[in-house]
Amino acid sequence: MRGNPRVWLLRRLDEALRARERGLRGDALRRFRVVMGATSLVLLLDLIYLGVIFRLPPSRQASQALAVGLGLLLGGGSLVLVRRGRSSQTPALLLCGSLSAGIILATLAVEQPGAVVHAANMLAPALAVYLLGARPGFAFTALHVFHAGFLHEFVHSGFGLTRPLFSHPETWWGNFMGCVALVLGWALSWLHSTASEEARRELEHALRTLRESEGKLLSLFESSDDAVLSVDARLCLVMANTTAQGLFREVTGGALRPGSSVPDQCPPPLRAWVKELSTQALTGQRMRGEVDVEIQGARRTVDVIFTPVWEGERVVGLTLFSRDITERKRAETKLGEMHRSLLDVSRQAGMAEIATGVLHNVGNTLNSVNVSVNLVVERLRATRAAGLERCVALLRENASRLCAFFTEDPRGQQLPSYLEALALQLSQERATVMEEMRRLSESVDHIKSVVSMQQRHARISGVLEHVAVPSLIDDALRLHAVSFERLGIVLKRDYASAVPTVLVDRHKLLQILVNLLSNARHALLERTGEDRQLTLKVARAGARLNISVSDNGVGIAPETLHRLFTQGFTTKRDGHGFGLHISALAAREMGGQLSGASEGRSHGATFTLELPLVAPDMSGPRA
Length: 623
Hints:
By secondary structure, the protein is α+β, with helices and mostly antiparallel strands. Mean pLDDT is 76; it is low at 618-623. It folds into 4 domains: 5-203, no CATH class; 224-324, PAS domain (Beta-Lactamase, 2-Layer Sandwich), CATH 3.30.450; 332-455; 460-612, Histidine kinase-like ATPase, C-terminal domain (Heat Shock Protein 90, 2-Layer Sandwich), CATH 3.30.565.10. It contains 20 helices and 12 strands. The chain starts with a helix and ends in an 11-residue tail after the last strand. It has helices at 5-16, 19-22, 27-52, 58-84, 89-108, 123-132, 134-156, 169-223, 242-252, 262-265, 268-281, 326-381, 385-397, 402-407, 410-457, 469-478, 481-487, 506-525, 558-561, 579-589; strands at 227-232, 237-240, 287-295, 298-311, 314-324, 464-467, 489-495, 502-505, 532-541, 544-551, 593-597, 605-612. The strands form 3 sheets. It has a 5-stranded antiparallel sheet, sandwiched between helices. Strands 7-9-10-12-11 form a 5-stranded mixed sheet. Strands 6-8 form a two-stranded antiparallel sheet. It is rod-shaped, with a radius of gyration of 57 Å. The relative contact order is 0.04.
């Protein structure tokens, strides 16, 4: 016998059982082991006792041989049932019966006092309670109590004929205490069995709950598309799901080995990285990182999350969640490229919108210049300056006799009044020409103003600067001023006093304003009637500045209101669906928000641009 005697004994008992019984778990297996061990021990004791029976007095040999024979018979039957039966109840009943019968028959053959209080009397009740339960155990206990308290004394007193029953008080008192000890032994065995049963049930319930939780956890691990690993505080692998094994096999060509260090199993380029993040996660921090790995000759990007596993206030391990994010990275790259392309398109669209406004206003102003120039030319053609030339020629002809010419010649007499009328006419013509030249100068100045404003705003976007919003709105209005006047659109400005400046990209804000004014102009142009109004409002709302553009144009249908800022959506016949979408993106990039509202068709619309008074973080996310 080497090693632990308990392990050796259990192995021998299991070898004596059949494979079916050895496959049992818990109390069922333990009961079979106890029945096999106790029966074997009782048979061994019976055989030993059988060898010493012939040394007893002849009067006791028959009864002792009967007791040993009965014990061997019942014990042998118990062993047969253990080997062939499906339950331990019947072999246990035979075992307890053989043990009780042997003890009772053996003690009945002994007349001396105290035989019935031998310690062997306690074996049968204790085994019966454990193997059969409390009630069968009490039946065997009652049998031994009846034997110790009455049967033994009744038999050895010659059924009360040889001597009176209980004639020896010390014997009677000892037998009585033996009965009490038997009952107390049964009670203690019952309590122990009950406590063990409750503990067993609680343990089975806990094990069942644990198995269910473990099954759910394993199911969750296996159903996840992420690679999931569980490691202990020494970074040794506890378990890994199928996805993790597959990913590891693709990266290294081998399998993850439970119980081995995870960093040591990783490829050499990743070991230091995994160990560093794992060490930081073991301090209680949730770590996350991205790493490039080579899978089947292709470079892939893997996102790994290191989550601490807490037991009370200490970290006992880590859970690693890993996911292949290569496609997401590619999508993000394409999305970034599309975003940059969209910004370029938006800038070009904004430049085109502003250029269209500039050309439109310059064209309208040039029309006024052409009108003024034509009027000046017509005035000059119709001038009376030729009459003055004729007067000068007439005076030159009569230079030698001017006095006679003015007093005697009828032409000379009419010349002063003619010169007076001519001077008045030339003065009127001069005033008219001067007025037209003034208008021409104003038109030229307006052209210069529009071009100068375009040059001032046509700078590289992305530069933050303090912008006076009312002034920028007036600049945007100037691009549409002639159109508004020609269409009869009444402008209303409602600017709050002491409007603070905002730190924004001037080009983006101007682009949004021009787009909103252009949309309002189209909405008012489609409106029937002459009462066309456009209201511009600037007001402060807490830490934000609100710019509202309201018109009483055709309005917006409720079913299309939620699609206003969707790319490609437009209600104009010649629209491209970029304006509002790009304006909303620009507002978001400036840390603001663009929203639209309308009560329905023919009820006008209001677009509100909210800008933060504190400059947003324009640096963007860092990789």
